Fold Helix-turn-helix transcriptional regulator.
Amino acid sequence: MDTESALLALSALSQSTRLDIFRLLVRHEPEGLAAGDVARRLDVPQNTISVHLATLTRAGLLTSKRHSRLIIYRANLSRLRDLMLFLVRDCCAGSPDLCAPLVAALSSCCPASECCS
């Protein structure tokens, strides 16, 4: 990931509703949620959700797929992984022991075979 891509993703996540949307969709991986379900769960008007979903999609943080009349949105976990790696790539000046708590915290969220593939 380059600096411009990271800034685009961070900018998209810097608004509270978009951050809530992204976190909700991360919790609903791998199935994703329809746009209307996202709106209902977060109690946000449908037209407002559409704008936020579009912003997150342009930033590469979400993917969407049409199923009949519904559009299902999913968190792009590989993009999340790339962003996280970009942020910590030079962690602790190359001292792995200083980064160990961060790595342990991230590793405990889910098995490597399921997370961020």
About this structure: Residues 77 and 116 are 5 Å apart (CA to CA). The chain has a mean pLDDT of 89.
